[in-house]
Amino acid sequence: MNTDIASIISNHYLFSALLDSERDDLIKDSTRQHFSADSILFQKGEIATRFYLILQGTVRIYFATPDGREKTIRTFSAPDSFAEAVMFMSHDAYPANAATITNCELLVIHISTFRSLLEKRPALYSSIIGHLIHHIQILNRQLEMLSVMDTKGRLLKYIDQKLPPNWQNKTTYPLPMNKKDLAEYLAMRPETLSRTLKSIEQDGTLIWGKDGVTLLNWPPKD
């Protein structure tokens, strides 16, 4: 067993309750793959045969609008998994699109393989369903943020969610999305995001640079 993957799997909600032999079998039947930035992983409506564990990099889930624009729903970074919820849906099709934001290394896991483990170990369902409910709560909070907060509040809330618990001022922290994707995620026009960010920078709260966001006087004042 690859020790790096084994360590990640052992601490992941989907796999933590598996026996060592079951993890070995799962890894043997999975594929470790590298993807360059902006690679399409799957598209809405495509028959779902696999889900993913991120070993390195960042992925976005998005919808394509009829006029060709893309709306980012959520981003995932290592060691997150994504697309596992399709295993519990009434149809075997991806409900959205997925693409890499950065260069990524992913563990591609066959849905049929994991379903067979669940059939043998029904007790695994409880921890998995609990985590899926947590995902739903995150989406509900995102919807609330978009509906009740102004543009500045949305941007500050997003940054706050991406900072580590032990953040410090005078320190730069990377963010998983560029300005274009972030504007879509926060339901803003790119020019609105730029104006909002400029206002926050003028307040002396932070600086947005190519390496991420540098905190100057965080948290922001009301």
Structure notes:
This protein has 222 residues and is α+β, with helices and mostly antiparallel strands. It has helices at residues 3-10, 20-28, 111-120, 124-148, 151-162, 179-185, 190-202; strands spanning 31-35, 40-42, 50-56, 58-64, 70-77, 81-82, 97-100, 104-110, 172-173, 206-209, 212-215. A 4-stranded antiparallel sheet has the order 1-8-3-6. A 4-stranded antiparallel sheet has the order 2-7-4-5. β10 (206-209) and β11 form a beta hairpin. α6 packs across α7. The termini are far apart.
Short structural summary:
With 222 residues, the protein is of the alpha+beta class. The chain contains seven helices and eleven strands.
* Strands, count: 11
Cα separation of the termini: 51 Å
The proportion of strand residues reads 15-25%
Q: What pattern of helices and strands is seen along the backbone?
A: HHEEEEEEEEHHHEHHEE
Mean residue pLDDT:
87
Residue stretches low in confidence (pLDDT < 50, at least 5 long) are none
- Report on the biggest sheet: 4 strands, antiparallel
Shape: globular
- Report the helical percentage: 25-40%
Strand order of the largest sheet: 1-8-3-6
Query: How large is the radius of gyration?
Result: 19 Å
- Helix/strand/pairing class, anyone? alpha+beta
Number of helical segments?
Answer: 7
Labels describing this entry:
single chain; 222 residues; alpha+beta; 4-stranded antiparallel sheet; 38% helix
Detail the topology: elements first, then pairings:
Elements: H1 3-10, H2 20-28, E1 31-35, E2 40-42, E3 50-56, E4 58-64, E5 70-77, E6 81-82, E7 97-100, E8 104-110, H3 111-120, H4 124-148, H5 151-162, E9 172-173, H6 179-185, H7 190-202, E10 206-209, E11 212-215
Antiparallel strand pairs: 1-8, 2-7, 3-6, 3-8, 4-5, 4-7, 9-11, 10-11
Helix pairs in contact: 6-7
